[in-house]
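Suppose a colleague, Dr. K., hands you the sequence of a protein chain of 71 amino acids and asks what its three-dimensional shape might be. Before reaching for any lab equipment, you can write down a predicted structure in token form. Begin with the sequence itself:
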Amino acid sequence: VDATTGLFSGVCKQAHYVRKGEIIHPVKEVTLSGDAFQALKTIRLLGDSAVPEYQGIITPSCLVEGIEMKR
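The predicted structure, expressed as tokens, is then:
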């Protein structure tokens, strides 16, 4: 994440495609990009469990609108 602009991009190894609030299918190895500052404003749902991820950071699953996904 660029701390000045909030722009980010990265590879997501575990994610799900969600349409109208329903999980449609899993997706693998997709590139996500967007504006982190805007993404924080468009979090629609947080999961009730969290597991350690990258470098031991613990985060819940979240549903965010407006993030671009490319295969």
